[in-house]
Write a structure and sequence with these properties.
Two copies of one chain form a homodimer. Chain A is built from eleven helices and 15 strands. The first copy, chain A, is α+β, with helices and mostly antiparallel strands. In chain A, strands 1, 2, 3, 4, 5, 6, 7, 8 and 9 form a nine-stranded mixed β-sheet that branches. In chain A, strands 13-12-11-14-10-15 form a six-stranded mixed β-sheet. Chains A and B meet through helix 8, helix 9, strand 13 and helix 11 of A and helix 8, helix 9, strand 13 and helix 11 of B.
Chain lengths: ~400, ~400
């Protein structure tokens, strides 16, 4: 297995495009994206657990009840959420897209991201669909990745190549996600495509299993979005014997999916709203995986620790504090904490108490772009990793006046 | 019942003082406070639920096992937490204080607040205790309130006067709390004194009941401190017949306690680290009080909403978003949301969808120092209120480099 280019267009038979259709006022920013599979694909999805759900999610859920899809239409600039006519608009987007592609509206996944509670017009989508469709290409991933961005500052795309029963397969995704991101639910917008052949039930199994260790372990700000989903399409064009049960091929597929998803998680965390650095918390020595996940998330979600990391301040007391309120029972007098980054590794707490360390070395380590917080609980053998980012002036700036 | 002056010295027989003893480097800031009752007092306390607990809490819990105390010693600048010799230091503080006051160390409440994991020396306490004791006075509340402050910008003291069986009683408190504050546990440092006569069991009942609706409904940053506690001393010097059961006198006492605690909550929330405004979320029409509390807390804890309030941006979608992930089951299509402040009231969402409103008027309302977010769920008759603050550049600044 190795990384490759092309994102959602890496897999055979997938085309993509993104254009500016006018939902956003800023004309230099694409706001409508389309992903299209030349043949119908098995499709699985997971959705936000927020009770307040965007209308596109309701429509998509309905469309995916048969486990099949052929296209994804997604706009940024308006979440189409908390609007009286939201369902109508989301269905309208599916119909406009289906008509242009000569497919059934039920085979269209609809997604929207942006401001909540602002009425949305179908007009820009209707007038832009021809340009959007005609520009579909195997080189269109960049444009599609840009079209789904909101406050994101970088495009997020990853792809891998792997083999199933002697056939070369590819799996790649694009993601949008910057604020309103919190673990333990499907967060962000992520679209993944693969040409591997796999049945819809096994595709669902793969996706719902993998997100527990990937997207559900990312937090930017503790706020769970109303509109987020992860969608995975598999069109079978690689020609491998379809995966219809667990086994070696399924394991390989899971590995490919996990590789792509972890990379997308790191990209999302590192591009969290206002973030200057990506934080990773690795917890080892937990009594159970559930415990390890709770501790890792608790650390990554602490506003105080996030602010300390922004300031490159080795304030490990805040790591202990966050572990202490994680809800996991443990002997706090056994906790070890260390910080690491490309600049080195430094131990700051052993057996629950501080150890002398060089502030200068700590500052150097914490001034890097990617910081790992290493926690050992000495309670058992279970591990988990969570991803987040620092809390900065720019997070406040971005969210202090998002609508204007 | 009416508000009165004097904070923890409002009640008969209570003296207080605060000095700079040298725990903090900044010589202009008091860092050691003492509250003393002329006679032994019934005493109740609640403690943080964080598993990582400051050593002073362990020592205080032990001292209060007999429901009695006569003095409170509290330092700022060092939390005496996660230090190998923490218990020894906390016990040392109690002994030094007890000796100076000629009382038993078991009658001393010990509290510390400040940096976690930095070894603490008893020397400044030992050398300052004489000055601290000799300055004890009925006018010493201000000095004591200052001595417990960390990143607080204002002193927090409140007192009320009320009658029990014809006797004039007083109850007043001081509080410290700016960061690491999160509901559903005893947070912050709060010391309350009263001259009302009440048995230790009824005092515990009053305190543990009241904090559910007061201190447990405050959040500044979602981080639960390792060192916080609320301590309530009642010395009986008002001369009322001791309250030893529920009834009219107990109700009056509860009312006094609640009045003081709500004011302290508002002071703590409004002085949250970096805060420019106090946020109050009033939830009505919930199916149960538990539901109402969960929703109110979820709204007050949302980083996105807190940042929007900083920007005076009426981004009500974030209120709905936070309600949606609160974990409370409800029909989201019935939610009403309004904002109010001394500048007026504006309805922004009815039955789960936005309603047209004047952005200009909303801006004016949200530019005040105290904002109320009004939520009606239309699910039942239960209500709750939670308090918090906005998220600002200064929160990041204060916490980006707290230790230096």
């Amino acid at each position: 297995m190795h990384l490759t280019e092309g994102g959602v267009c890496a897999a055979k038979g997938f085309l993509a495009n993104g254009i500016h259709c006018g939902i956003r006022k800023n004309r230099t920013k694409r706001d409508l994206s389309l992903i299209f599979s030349e043949v119908p694909a098995a499709c699985a999805a997971v959705y936000t657990t927020n009770l307040v759900k965007g209308a596109p999610l309701t429509v998509t859920k309905e469309h995916l009840s048969n486990g099949r899809a052929q296209a994804v239409i997604c706009n940024s600039g308006n979440a189409n959420t908390c609007n009286a006519n939201g369902i109508e608009i989301a269905e309208g987007m599916a119909e406009i897209t289906a008509k242009a592609l000569s497919i059934s509206p039920e085979d269209v996944v609809v997604a929207s991201t942006g401001v909540i509670g602002e009425p949305m017009s179908l007009e820009p989508v209707a007038s832009g669909i021809t340009e959007l469709k005609e520009g579909l290409s195997v080189h269109g991933c960049d444009a599609a990745a840009e079209g789904i961005m909101t406050t994101d500052t970088v495009k997020k795309e990853v792809a891998v190549e792997f083999e199933l029963d002697g056939k070369v397969c590819r799996l790649g995704g694009i993601a949008k996600g910057s604020g309103m991101i919190h673990p333990n639910m499907a967060t962000m917008l992520v679209f993944i495509t693969t040409d591997a052949a796999i049945t819809a039930p096994m595709l669902r199994k793969a996706l719902s299993g993998d997100i527990q260790n990937t997207f559900n372990m990312v937090s930017v700000d503790g706020d769970t979005s109303t509109n987020d989903m992860v969608v995975l399409l598999a069109n079978g064009m690689a020609g491998n014997p379809a995966i219809d049960s667990e086994g070696e091929a399924f394991d390989t597929f899971m590995k490919a999916l996990n590789t792509v998803n972890i990379q997308l998680c790191r990209l999302i965390a590192g591009d969290g709203e206002g973030a200057t650095k990506m934080l990773e918390c690795q917890v080892n020595g937990a009594a159970s995986e559930t415990d390890a996940k709770k501790v890792a998330k608790s650390v990554i979600c602490s506003s105080l620790l996030k602010a300390a990391m922004f300031g490159a301040d080795a304030n490990w007391g805040r790591v202990l504090c966050a572990i202490g309120y994680s809800g996991v029972p443990m002997d706090v007098n056994r906790i070890d904490v260390a910080f690491s980054s490309p600049a080195g590794r430094i131990s700051v707490c052993e057996n629950g108490a501080g150890v002398p360390f060089s502030e200068e070395k700590a500052k150097k380590i914490l001034s890097e772009k990617e910081i790992t917080i290493l926690v050992h609980l000495q309670e058992g053998d279970a591990s988990a990793t969570a991803w987040g980012c620092d809390l900065t002036y720019d997070y406040v700036k971005i969210n202090g006046d998002y609508r204007t």
